[in-house]
Amino acid sequence: MNEEYKDCASLSSRVTDDSSQENVTIQLRDVTYRYDDRDILSAFSASIAAGSFYAVMGPNGCGKTTLLRLVAGLLHPQRGAVAVQGRDVRHYSARELAQRVAFVRQQPQTDFDFSAFETVLMGRNPYQYRLQNESQRDWEIVERCMKQTNTWHLRFAKPGEMSGGELQRVMLARALAQETPIMLLDEPLANLDIAHQFEMLQLLRDINREQHKTLLLVIHDLNMALQYCDSLLLLHHGGIRYQGPIAEGLTSDNIEEVFGVRASLSDGTIQLSSK
Amino acid sequence: MLNGKLGGSPNLALNISHFPFPLGCMRPNLPIKYRRGVPRLYHLTLMAVLLLAAMLGCSVLGVVRFSWAEMWSSPIFLNLRLPRVILAVLIGAALSVCGAAYQSIFRNPLTDPYVLGISSGASLGAAVSIVLGLEAYMLGVGVCALVTGLLTILAIYRIASIGNRMHTTTLLLTGVCITFLISAVISFLMVLNQDKMESIIFWTMGSLASATWSDVAFVAPVVLIGVAVVLYYCRDLNLMLVGSETAQSLGVEVEKVKRILLLVTTVMVAFCVSACGVIGFVGLVVPHCMRLLCGPDNRKVIPYSIFVGGLFLLLCDTLARTLLMPAELPVGSLTALVGAPLFVYLLYKNKKTF
Questions:
Q1: Residues 6 or more apart from B200 whose CB is under 8 A from it?
Q2: CA distance B15 to chain A (A)
Q3: Predicted-complex ipTM score
Q4: Among B2, B12, B32, which would you mutate to test the A interface (most chain A Cβ atoms within 10 Å of its Cβ)?
């Protein structure tokens, strides 16, 4: 933890364009979220430092998606509070929150007919006023984000004409176009082939390093997380099992406890086998 | 105003958007970069001129003919034809805009005020107000129609929403059930009040035959304000079309916008129904044709729907009263003649795309 805070302090001192940026950008205090009489998260507390790149891991149903949705303001906890940049999520308007937090859903919806370009352009919505037309700047940002995610050649395509991976990259481009300091990604690798998984992770790391965005990434592949992410938030039964640098968190004890599989580390890679 | 210099291949499709009206908006594949999000002013001007010409032309047609000179002093033209034509345009525009709004709010291409049962809900209020002897007061009928219309939309919303989502089948079935239920209640009311049967039938069938200037004065402000409100929320509707959660995370206060728009559109539908009864399928046909022409962007679909919806109902009503002169067809049967096959086609195709 200590090391991480030092790391973040040096990071935020590097951020010169946004001096108001606090060290802690997301804070959850005693958050309890119940659904159908079941505690998805119970008395959950965590602080996420600005500029960090977190892998959010844990078995199915442990509350990873719920955690992201709470931070994105899509759900509100029954008890406790979620603060983004020092302010309770509930006190933001949807527009203000959308300027701070971008959320990439697990399953991109496809039942509409907007082209990829129009879809990415929707990411500019939090900066536009009603009845206002898109500005030249909006177009430039959309073009940059689409080129960055390698989707510019798809700009004419409709959702039905794109593969799952292409659609996922378009959704990432839309989140980038929101120009938020925080990005939440719920299993963005789920529909990608291996080459594109690496490409996406590389891109995310570049975004984290160059634009100093705080990234929370739900990911299942332990080795990929180990290779690309800096920090780990390991969830277990609605609480935190481990938070800190990822290399120290992915121990065979933790993995066995949380996922119920046997793990052995050798040469910086994790070998898994069933119990 | 907009040049296509910005990257990409500017000469690929750029110039098509500079073509005059019909071609200019008929390029759904063209990215917004090469089009403007809002309709071009001259498209709208052209459509307004077309609509005015059609209004004038349609009011000249009919059993009684008159020359250009005597038209402006003829009471038939001034007190019968003119209010009827204006009312047809207002109601056509209102129903189309409401249809487009419902389709985006419910994320369902098959919804319109009629299919959802909101029109029949409002007609129940109208029937009740007739039974209570309120038909002399337009406002009395309007308020009754509004109350039952709002109750209907509330019921549909409560029944058909599972979590945050509206399921197509549940939504349509709820609409059908409510329509059946209400028609049963209305038949019951008619049997109990046989002396008022005819005026109740008028509301369930839908007709513009009794249009007067007071109807126009009653409907026009509501429609103008309602359409303005829907236009104000056009971009939010686009985002809601993609998904309510996505819209929320892109900065739309989904619940608030949804509530405002459902209220405003239901008020519009209720006032239209209390002026002319239930006219079906207008709100389904018009936004769909607009989507086929200019893509899913509501900032185009809704403004164009205003004009084309007005024109569509105007033409249907004119056909209804001139086709079998001097007899008159119910205008609802003509809109259904166009709308019902389209509805079936959409059900058949049901690809869930807009």
A1: B127, B130, B131, B186, B189, B190, B193
A2: 16
A3: 0.82
A4: B32
